[in-house]
What we know:
The chain has two helices and no strands. It is mainly α.
Amino acid sequence: MGDPFFILAVIACVAVVIVLALGLGGFAGGGEFNKKNSNKLMRYRIGAQFIAVIFIVLFVYFRNQGG
């Protein structure tokens, strides 16, 4: 639980959920917000997912090293 990669992975996953919720909320609401921000939010979500996957892989790698 105290592993820094685990904590970073959880934070990154929460960030993905937040950006996804903002994107879905904007899509559902439509209008000007969706037109201005839908592609930007999608890029942020993909970036956050990439970072989350990196932290998850690092956590699993270092955990399997016996550390």
